[in-house]
Structure formats: C-alpha cells, structure tokens
Amino acid sequence: MRNVFYLIALAYAHQLSANFIWPAVGAHYGFFDVAVWLSIALGLVIEFFFIKKLVPRVPLKTLFIVTVLMNIASALFGAVFLSVVDVSLQHLFGLSWLWQVILLYGATVLVNICVESFVCLKFWPDIDKQNLISALAVANAISVGIALLGVKLF
To answer: What is the pLDDT of residues 122-132, one digit of tens each?
Structure first.
C-alpha cells in the first residue's frame, strides 16, 4: 500500500516543475490542453532568446534543437529528482503547501540551471560559463513561474 501511495504522489508531483510538465502534465491534464502547450512553448521561447544572446552566430535551427535538447534532459532528470523532492517536502517534512511550492520552485530552477548548462556546454564548450548560468537562472525563473501559473490557474 505504501508503494501505491508513492506512485500516486509521484504522478501529481509534476504540478510545480516547468520541465516536468513535458512527461507528466499531458498525462494528467490531457495532451490537448492549451495551458499545457502554452506553458511549454513560452518556456522554450524564453530560453531560446536568452541562449541566442550568448551565441549570436549560431544558426536558428541549431539553437532551437539545443534548446529543446536542454529541456528534454532536464525533464528526464526532473521527472525523478523533483518528484522525490516534492514527496519528501510534503510527506516526510510535513511542510505547508506554501513552503512546499516555494522550495520546490527554487529546487526546480536550480536543477534546470545545472542540467541545461551541462547540455549547453556539450555543444558550445567555449561559451562564457558565468553568463550562461546567469542567463539560464533568469530564463528558468521565468519559465518555471509561467509553468506553475499555467498549471495552477488553468
């Protein structure tokens, strides 16, 4: 019974993570829900333009592919890591809903920065790492916020 509880909790943990939206929100809200695809599209566009400023000479097609790959990588990592964090915050530490949202928001942004900068550096190892981390911090803070609002409001 305990395993069933954790599986159910993992299924609903997607509600607070931008990149975890990809594999899970579609299953919960429906793959044809406008809010789901709008959140994903806005997040990709925001990150695309932040990365474009760092690598202005890269063709748009290549930049789009790398942006999508960065987000797929963080979605795969976030599907496991952030689910465990979400379940831990709520059930093991007994935090209120507000603290859970705040801490999971911060964890999501940090995980996305780490995973996405790792992927980005695989394609452009000479990119300025400090500017990359700063750009990804702002872009992910915005896109995670949009995903959170999109899922919670719609």
So the answer is: 999 999 999 99
Q: 16-50 burial by CB neighbour count: b if 16+ within 10 A, else e?
A: bbbbbbbebbbeebeeebebbeebbebbbebbbeb
Residue 14: what pLDDT?
Answer: 43
At 67, list the tokens.
Answer: 């942006």
> Cα(50)–Cα(136) distance, rounded to whole angstroms?
7
Q: What pLDDT score does 30 carry?
A: 56
**46 Cβ partners below 8 Å, 6+ apart?**
139, 142, 143, 146
Residue 117 and residue 136 in contact, taking contact as beta carbons nearer than 8 Å: yes
- Domain-wise residue ranges, the chain: 2-153
